[in-house]
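Shipment paperwork, digital attachment
Item: protein structure file
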Amino acid sequence: MKSARVYIKGIPAGRLIQESPNKYRFTYDEAYVLQHREDPVCLAMPVREKSYSAPYLFPFFSNMLSEGSNRLFQARLHHINPDDDFSLLLEIAGYDTIGAVTVKPE
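Attachment content:
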């Protein structure tokens, strides 16, 4: 099991977990739900108490990853299988992201 903390504008927002290769879960922090209901990770995942689950990495998070030769370069640089989306996300989405969301390993 791998897990990460998700931040929105530097504020702890939730936890992203890869429970198995085909099982992912995202849960907003209780404090975030109470104070930031209007600021979701993405429109497809509104702020709520109930967890989101999917058999694949949620599209919002997988879209944070590079593609093509950049992805291969990053995978080689960090010694990660280029097909391991979650591990790549943990390595590269903790800094220098395009939007307000960052993902950092726990």
